[in-house]
Write a structure and sequence with these properties.
mainly alpha; AAA domain-containing protein
């Protein structure tokens, strides 16, 4: 499975970039806040800083 993870401060264009990646790559866009994503990442051995 290929995953592209975009993260950063509010209002910097993450959604715009994600939508363009979806159009150009054929990947599907999944929007999720970090609060929901951290438990999943930690199960995969990735521990983002709070």
């Amino acid at each position: 499975m290929n995953v592209i993870l975009l993260f950063g401060p509010q209002d910097v264009g993450k959604m715009t970039v994600g939508q363009e990646l979806e159009k150009q790559s054929g990947y599907r866009l999944l929007y999720m806040t970090m609060d929901l994503l951290v438990p999943f990442l930690s199960k995969c051995g990735v521990y983002p800083h709070a």
